[in-house]
Amino acid sequence: MKFELTGDQQDFASSLESLLVASDPVSAARSWAEGDHAAGLKLWQRLAEQGLLMLATEASAVEVALAFEALGRHGVPGPWVESAAYLPTALGREIDGVGTVAVPPLVPYALDADAADEVYATTTDGLLAGSIGALHISVDRTRRLFDVSPDGDRVASGESLDAAFDLAVLACAAQLLGAGERVLADSVTYVKQRKQFGREIGSYQAIKHKLADVRIALDFARPLVFGAAIEPTPRAVSAAKVACSEAAYLASRTGLQVHGAIGYTQEFDLSVWITKIRALVSAWGSPAEHRARILDSLLEA
Amino acid sequence: MDLELSETELAFQAEARAWLAANVPPEPLPSLDTAEGFELHREWESRLAADRWSVVSWPAEAHGRAASLVEWVVFEEEYYRAGAPLRVSQNGIFLLAPIIFEHGTEEQQARFLPSMATGERVWAQCWSEPEAGSDLASLRSTARRDDDRGGWVLNGQKIWCSRAALAHWGFGLFRSDPEAQKHAGLTYFLFPLDADGVTVRPIAQLDGEAGFAEVFFDDVFVPDADVLGAPGDGWRVAMSTAGNERGLSLRSPGRFTAAADRLLASYAERPDQRVADRVVDAWLRAEAYRLYTWGTVTKLKDGGDIGAAGSVNKVWWSELDIALHETALDLLGPDAELESAWLDGYTFSLSGPIYAGTNEIQRNIIAERILGLPREPKGLQK
């Protein structure tokens, strides 16, 4: 019984953190949203060199979760869940470059297919190569969603697709956890600086209690993520996704509220996370889908 | 990173499970806040103690098994899964005993711990006063030095004293230095509730039972031997109790995972789609608490400290407990208002966000000590 990160895992997380702190991912995200992939792909390359694309095949789900928490915390753009969680598990190999996939009905569009080297979609037959269709606009402007026609060869089928889906759900949950942590951290910084009625707004209980509730929600979402990482069963990853969606969404609502009007602007960086959290809550299965999955599995037991 | 139990821990688990299966009363005992239920719960404690299951984490020479923290959590999980009775001795074994182990003299340990472990002597906590609730340090009950008799004379009033209506002894803080302010000048006392000058007035709780009481002190003499820790050092001594109550020891995950299992069983019996999401959420929150606790246990095993995270913990379990019971009642439809185990549990759960430091106080602690937000300007001092 040792429910904490190993030294190696902590080292991995902190080196990833240093890389991201130094890489200005928010600028990359903003240009990505405009369809300019240059900065985002450069960052993609650096993260790939750090080993992110091989975690699913070469490391464990714990490392995958750690990586996605960092990606979420820094608002990194791109189809990471697809390239670093779903596809390597489904195909049994590392993605060389950028890959994306649609997994209807829960994941009807392929994220950032215009930036991808490999594009796939699942059908009842399995995982097929596909070709890109129309672009759809997401609340998160960095998430460019595309229709895909599964008109190519079948490349995988069966159980590996279920495992791929579950790992993608876990990765998405971890990304939400990181995004929620970021919003909380930035909100705490803000309420310590912003003064009204002659004192920091963070000294008022109305603000304190809201932020304390975010701290609590994130603290109890985290063990569900890493518990699921140790054993990524459908029930465990769904539980992680529901809890992280709820905690991150609470963070985003609270973060927006304590920032006031400045938080409601696109220009202010908080917007990157507020819109991303809203999108990720329903990505890879909405909370309702995952609750239903949990209930089915509990009643079967 | 793993969640595996070792061979020894698995063996301990199997032994606990087998003992509980053979010994847990088939029918629930009457409430421990009734005279009859109190005695039956004490008998249960002595049965636990006879086979060294009442205080598994205590040393072997003190009725325990020197169980590790992991084993303690495992035991609790088995205990509640088996539907075993509530612990009438919990104020003593979970709140007071850690303080006696840490601050008590050898003589005090020898005198107080064995009867606590067997349920022979049941302890009541006497913290709050009419004017000192969340602001506990503003308490006014006094302890006056009596050098002739070698002790202290207590005066004042405590209130909301859990178990005091039926318990034998109490513990609480008194102001021993009238000049000192707030946290200074307080002393931690142990006292028999039938001592001369002590008056106990039971208070009926929401469910009609006398789960707590007012305790009046009118020149009550307490010898030096019954002072816990140094005179004047009571706040520091007591705060380790508060940490225990808020943190791990009072609310093991076993209570909630067992309740979540019962909730699922109720749902399976009378499924109601309209309540389904809340059943899932209650289960999920219990599961989060279970896993979170393994993280806490790992930290403590490595010599770490819970610190203000105890407040995070307390808000979570207290609200989780209500959510589990509320959801179960909602599943019962029109029968929800009728007497039932769920209703008893629900009523009890309502006290969770209030005792051991209200959840508002906990949120202040989380905001100030974990998030580092500025302290609230103090109100006017008296």
Overview of the molecule:
The complex is a heterodimer of chains A (301) and B (382). Chain A is built from 11 helices and 9 strands. Chain A is of the alpha+beta class and 301 residues long. Chain A has a domain of 141 residues: Butyryl-CoA Dehydrogenase, subunit A, domain 3 (Up-down Bundle). In chain A, strands 1-3-4-7 form a 4-stranded mixed β-sheet, with helices on one face. In chain A, strands 2-6-5 form a 3-stranded antiparallel β-sheet, with no helix packed on it. In chain A, strands 8-9 form a two-stranded antiparallel ribbon. In chain A, helix 8 packs antiparallel against helix 9. The longest helix of chain A has 35 residues. Chain A starts with 6 loop residues before the first helix and ends with a helix. Chain B starts with 6 loop residues before the first helix and ends in a 12-residue tail after the last helix. In chain B, strand 2 and strand 3 form a beta hairpin. In chain B, helix 4 packs antiparallel against helix 5. Chain B is built from 11 helices and 8 strands. Chain B is globular.
Biggest β-sheet of chain B, characterized? 4 strands, mixed
Rough outline of chain B: globular
Q: Tally the beta strands of chain A.
A: 9
Termini separation of chain A comes to: 24 Å
The CATH class of the largest domain in chain B, by name, is Mainly Alpha
CATH architecture of the domain at 160-300 in chain A: Up-down Bundle
Estimate nothing, just give the exact number of structural domains of chain B. 3
Strand content of chain A: 5-15%
Using the 3D structure, state the CATH architecture of the largest domain in chain B: Up-down Bundle
H/E element order of chain B: HHHHHEEEEEEEEHHHHHH
Provide the structure class of chain B.
alpha+beta
Low-confidence stretches of chain B: none
Protein structure class of chain A: alpha+beta
Largest sheet of chain A: 4 strands, mixed
